[in-house]
Amino acid sequence: MLVYVQHKDGTPLMPCKPSKARKLLRDKKAKCVCRTPFTIRLNWDSTKHVQKLVLGVDMGSRNSGFAVRNENNQVVYLSEVESKQDIVGKMDTRRSFRRVRRNRKTRYRKCRFLNRKNSTKDNRYPPSIRSKYDSIWKEIKYICCKILPIDDLVIETATFDPHLMQNYKLAFQPWMYQKGLKFGYRNTAHYVLKRDNYTCQKCRGKKKDSRLQIHHVLYRNQGGSDRANNLITLCSTCHRELHSGLFSLTKRNTKSLLSHATHMNVLQSMFRKRIQFREIVGSFTKTVRQYFGIPKEHCFDAICCSIKKDIVPELLTNRIFQKKCIGRGNYKLTNGIRSEKFIPKGKINGFKRWDTVLHKNIRCFVKGRMSTGYMVLCNILGQKLNFRPMPKPSTTKRLSSRKSWIIAELVIQSS
Ligand SMILES: [Zn+2]
Ligand SMILES: [Zn+2]
Questions:
Q1: CA of residue 99 to ligand 2 center, whole Å
Q2: Separation of alpha carbons 233 and 242, rounded Å
Q3: 368-379 pLDDT, tens digit each
Q4: What pLDDT digit, counting tens, does each position of 386-403 carry?
Q5: Is the peptide bond before 313 cis (omega within 30 degrees of 0)?
Q6: Pairing label, strands 396-400, 362-369
Q7: Quick one: which of 111, 142, 64 has its CA closest to 298?
Q8: Distance in Å, CA 211 to ligand 2 centroid
Q9: Could you give the CA distance from residue 241 to residue 247 in angstroms, rounded to a whole number?
Q10: What's this model's pTM, rounded to 2 decimal places?
Q11: How many CA atoms lie within 13 A of 292 on its CB side?
């Protein structure tokens, strides 16, 4: 375990051992500024002598890993950040609420069209990707400005090829790149009809209905794609029966196989445009990981991409800081669509949502509060913890207030 140290003016210095930090705190030469990760700030004007530290980042569409090593390949910081995954869903909900409201308030409104400035703006990224970028950038900034004097930034990049991911044979036949799935067909519908041999895939032509239609196996409004493997040919009779619920098709999960790959490609280009860093290709990281026999976790991947090749890496810290990004506040005003009963946004019995608390010596987070005076607590994964009896404000200690992420410490068992 290590304690992170800041200079009197707040700039990060080299970390120290807990025993030294304890002595400094006892002699009132330093004060604690953060509990997780434990950080102290010196009271006196020390020298700013630091080593060269390298920060390695393993970017992911959901989880990203961060690791800092010194010149002797000793790892001094490990963390994992989970970015928000609910942006798309929340924006869809907001859109549907707005649409309902604008239909309900029926005064005359002038037609508006082509008024979406975002679609023509330069350098504009969708909110879901922007949130992912922000969560990674926030952790990089936090490490560099608050915890450790970083000298060099290495990010693992790998360009994903959606075409190759759909058809692995292209790796051996690169000349086939121009001839994708729909080569020679007018459009996807034409391809799907031809693939299904112009017959209904349910009744195989037994219902004598010659009107053929294309159906989305996983509906568009449930996130199904327009790609051919989500489409199926049905005759008009079967199609109507299917939508009225007389039978159902087995749903293949074709939802987000390629969207994560695309998110990663976009994220990398965002980083290249905005900050300067050293790039390492993903295949190099994999080779290093296999050579040293390091397990495949995001933060260990981050060690591999920042590593010096000739020295075996060593862990000086045995903690992984797990961070999960959450919203900055609760913006839902009332309970239910037309209710006038306001939801309290501030504290209830001294607790806010996502506050870090201590209950029965377990560090956990406030998931929900009830007006009856009870609380629901959860762990870093958002899973409810079943305490008996139910936690009350009087038996729970508030450690820190809500921030835009929740942090937990994971201790690595040495093996
Ligand atoms: Zn049919
Ligand atoms: Zn349909």
A1: 24
A2: 12
A3: 888 888 999 999
A4: 988 899 989 999 999 888
A5: no
A6: unpaired
A7: 64
A8: 13
A9: 7
A10: 0.84
A11: 22
